[in-house]
Design goal:
The chain is of the alpha+beta class. It has helices at about 1-10, 10-30, 35-45, 45-55, 65-80, 90-115, 165-175, 265-290; strands at about 115-120, 125-130, 140-155, 185, 210-220, 225-230, 235-240, 240-250, 255-265. The chain has 3 domains: about 1-80, no CATH class; about 85-100 and about 265-294; about 115-265, no CATH class. Strands 1, 2, 3, 4, 5, 6, 7, 8 and 9 form a 9-stranded antiparallel β-sheet that branches. A hairpin with a 2-residue loop joins strand 7 (about 235-240) and strand 8 (about 240-250).
Length: about 290
Amino acid sequence: MRKIINLLASVKFAVTLLVLIILFGVSGTIIPQGLDSSHYSRIYGPAGDILFKLKLTDVYRSPWLIGLLSLLWLSLLVCAKGRLKSWKKQTGSLLTHLGLLIILLGALINTLLGESGFVSLPKGDDQAIFLTGNSGYRFKKLGFRASLDELSISQEGNACLSGRQGLALNIAKAISRPDPSPPPLVKGRISYPQEQNKNLTCPIGQKQPLAPEGRINFFDSTNRIIAVKTIKINQPFSFKGYTFYLENYELRYLNWVELKVTNDPGIPLVYAGFIFLNLGAIAIVITKNKNKPL
């Protein structure tokens, strides 16, 4: 038992854990996350099946990362416990360790209990479920119903876009031509207006971006509206523990949006941990200044 405690209290052990956690984070950035196994087989060939089985396609919820975070949490706990005997002289260090412990606890809660997915909202039709899942999709109940009440598009400020963004404008123009087939879905983040604002003169090859804005109604089980929220690109809103982001919208008829839905129950702990972390840093600076000779 003493050997295990000494190992957890070791700085080398903690640094090794941090390096491994960083490497897992990098792999989660390089490898696309949360897709179907067939996607990885198509991209990586036989190696795709290995990545999928090792949970490297869902790194942030993998047992590997959860285990590393848990070990790091225990290591910090043992280090903090060793400083309790001289807590009056090491208040800043204790607060710093406490902050890190709370942050890691919040991260573990998010990893184990957090949710992320999408909900599709056609205009006038309500939904009570969203599509979620990493390494395998499933439907999850929201506990309330939501519907798109209105979606509008306006010119966004006096900015002009160029280069590839101008090409995206031409694509948006092409797909908006009258056609009896169903309208294609356009990514909200790369959709641009068909005409420039007459009050703005952009250089040749540059266009203005769109500023989509939607109004979402939320209903309870009795079909009563309990909340009305406005959503824009890069301006999410929260409702009953869920955060909603505008991801996609239908450009031609303005009758459909797709919202990203996230639920991160550990976020309050992460914020609280950062408060303790900053308090500890301030206490360390004050203590060092007091001990300096005049």
